[in-house]
Amino acid sequence: MKLTVLGSGSPEAYLRRASSGYLLDIGDDVVLFDCGGGVYDNLLRAGRKPSEITHIFFSHLHSDHMMDYARLIHAAWDEGGRPVQVFGPDPIGFITQGYFGPQGVLSHDLRARTELLPSQEVWKARGGTLPRPWPAPDVTEITPGFTFQGNGWRLTSCEVPHAQPALTCMAFAVESEGRKFVYSGDAGICDALTALITDADLLLHWCYRLDGETAHPLMLPVTPTPSQIAQVAKSAGVKRLLLTHFRIHMDAPEGHAAALKALAEHFGENSRIVEDLDEYTV
Known about the structure:
It is a single chain. By secondary structure, this protein is an alpha/beta fold. The protein has a single domain, classed as Metallo-beta-lactamase, Chain A, CATH 3.60.15.10. The protein is built from eight helices and 14 strands. Helix 7 packs parallel to helix 8. The relative contact order is 0.15.
């Protein structure tokens, strides 16, 4: 498995980091976890095409985890790609119809592209055939505990505390050829996540605040610090730990230094803070 970081930031507008998005190459499949703002552009910067994506899994439906969803699906369709398999919590089906359905926000664009003669001629010149169907991602709404059997890989999931009850929030583990990758989504530490990350070869965990930062009491249990994440990962037998979802103020030199010191102290050397377009072998 190969992980490519397409977005390692937060909802904040930030040149250094796009919002959340992580590409996992597994054999012939190309799996995208979340698709926040800026992920589409970084996919292209990584030398990849939208039509390469075979599966999308949404950890939850905050905007910074799905803002580029419509852009990616539209571009994959315009390249003539196969329908993408999309998995996410309710209401991902409603959202998809809101983009690509007969009365969706893109319906006027899609009618123009598929029904106007000049657009049809452009499509045929690119190798397409008529009639040209609209984008039709294969959407499955999922709940925590969902499992999926891919071609040579298996995905499992659990619920994680983050934005309930407004949103269902999940973490995912992928196992293939004896290797295990876990993506926490936006997660507070909990027993279900600890079980999911046990013996992971690579854990990609969000980090929204640094050790010593003040936070509202309601935020404390759902925003673990580098030290807390490192301690849990170490106790669960994780072999490699990557922190992501860094906010602007956390990227100041002193913030980075503090986070790296906490990782080294509580987890060990095989840990780091990711950057957009980083690549890792699982």
